[in-house]
Amino acid sequence: xxxxxxxxxxxxxxxxxxxxxxxxxxxxxxxxxxxxxxxxxxxxxxxxxxxxxxxxxxxxxxxxxxxxxxxxxxxxxxxxxxxxxxxxxxxxxxxxxxxxxxxxxxxxxxxxxxxxxxxxxxxxxxxxxxxxxxxxxxxxxxxxxxxxxxxxxxxxxxxxxxxxxxxxxxxxxxxxxxxxxxxxxxxxxxxxxxxxxxxxxxxxxxxxxxxxxxxxxxxxxxxxxxxxxxxxxxxxxxxxxxxxxxxxxxxxxxxxxxxxxxxxxxxxxxxxxxxxxxxxxxxxxxxx
Length: 288
What we know:
- This protein is an alpha/beta fold.
- The chain has a single domain (about 5-180, about 215-255, about 260-270), classed as LmbE-like (Rossmann fold).
- It is about 35% helix and about 15% strand.
- It has helices at about 15-20, 20-30, 55-60, 60-75, 110-125, 140-155, 185-195, 205, 230-235, 255-260, and strands spanning about 5-10, 35-40, 80-85, 130, 175-180, 220-225, 260-270.
- A 7-stranded mixed β-sheet has the order 3-2-1-4-5-7-6, with helices on both faces.
- Helix 4 (about 60-75) packs antiparallel against helix 9.
- The protein starts with 5 loop residues before the first strand and ends in an 18-residue tail after the last strand.
């Protein structure tokens, strides 16, 4: 029997896993892939974006509510999930931006925050790892730090001289960056809504879009439209972060499936021969 394929998805906060790559993960789980979500922080400094969740936060505290939300979302997607255990850095406001809080994820030395991820990689032994690009997808300090530790751990986990006390080295075959919020996708959904006489919430967002060339980095489009409903259910499980009436849910699912039935990625690093474009994160690995 071929070895079970394993996917590790490294995310900054609880809810990131449901807004980036959730349908892909749900598809792979149903295909028998072992999927582990690594959540770097507890999201303790996040805002409550849904008034309906405020009472729970006042009773239990934001950190506990977000832990429970993460458990619910993981159950919906069928993934395993672990906490890396670092403190949310918050999103500093101002120009120039003030420093992040002392002791938070983005403030700690890179080797300190990389070490537990190296241990997890060597324990779980993923074939594929997904994370954010060098800009973090957007410039939240925790997202940028998630990129940094993902790439550092990718290298260190394979190096027998790095963190030798953390177990046997393991080479992750491929690393992907999420491209969920590409200009092409948002523009296509916007145009599809307008063509059907529906209101689009994306016009102002598109007008302010600066980098129209970034989409050229996409190498891999994973068909996963059948799992969009599961993705949305997982996202809604994060009640503190998601307004069910917000723009996340402005496009009917059938229209999404018709217009943009994939979740998209950039193959950032590969240790195997894997010609692009691809339609599978495990291209080149199946049957190996």
